[in-house]
Predict the 3D structure of the following.
Amino acid sequence: MMIDPRTVKRAQNGDHKAFKRLYDSTSLGIYNLMLRMSGNRETAEDLTQEVYLRVWRSLGGLKSPKAFVTWLHRIAINVYRDWAKSASHRLEEMRVEVQAQNQDDPEDEDNEDLDLIPSSHPLPDEEALRGEMRDVIERAISSLPEKYRAVVIMHHIEGLGLKEIAKSLDVAQGTVMSRLARARAMLREKLSGYVEGD
Amino acid sequence: MRCEEVREILPEYSVGALKRRKVRDVERHLEICPDCRRELAALRKVGEMVESLPLEKPPADIWDSIAVRIEAESQARGEVLWRRWLKPKLIPAWATLALMGLIAWIYLGLIRSPQQKTQPVIPLELKQHVVAAWDSPFSDTAALALYIGEGTQ
């Protein structure tokens, strides 16, 4: 992901239009990161908003405009972690679990309120992947522990390089690779019925 | 290497996280083991499946909310700055500064004025001439006029 450092500098000087350009260039990845990390659209919208507000407030502290993308992802991960720790999230998790259990029951009226990613909501590009298959993959990803989920989303879905991920998560590049390998092994197990093997 | 050993490190191999020596060992085993080759293909397929997930476009109203908030924060920051400089306890300091500025301006205005008044310099010869003709002031009207003229400038 390439960002013009001059745009970052202008945004640092308080230029709202430059900040909008930064948002336009990066929000697709950040929103999808938040969506897959939280597993909920409404939460992903709130978290994305919070990420960019934090970015705006602390832009002055960014010493190297070239490092904007990794710095942005670090903020995004921190925003997600803060949310995950919050008490309200505990309640949200309970609600999600209950709804996920009820989803199997077609007579349950509450199913209509469910806004999890693997739901009946139509999604763009759904034709590219059969809905059922997509739901299975989304569920498999969301069941991964946070540290594995983050690298899978950033690398396989957002398309970030290993170096960028390592800097964003403040870990060694080797750690990112071993997390990717572990995550792949876990996904292989969860998707065993859908991929050929022994 | 035995199959169990290879299966243990196959995920690392599939993402390119193995060291060169181990890579050679795994590849030697893969050449002779169709089951491990199938397992490697399955691991790679998992990566492809995840990569095939589409990116979902963020709703437009996210930016709208952000724009409203940053605009409000920018305005509030500006107001806070003004309020900080116009605190009641800073008013005497501002008044003193303004008074000092006024005094300095008046003083500089006076000493630098091009209209500054100077004492007329009357030539000595003219003074002597006027004194010599004191009993007949109109004997040399030209000199008298010059004297009066110099004195009134």
Summary: Helices of chain B lie at 3-15, 20-32, 34-51, 61-85, 91-111, 124-132, 141-152. Residues 61-85 of chain B form the longest helix (25 residues).
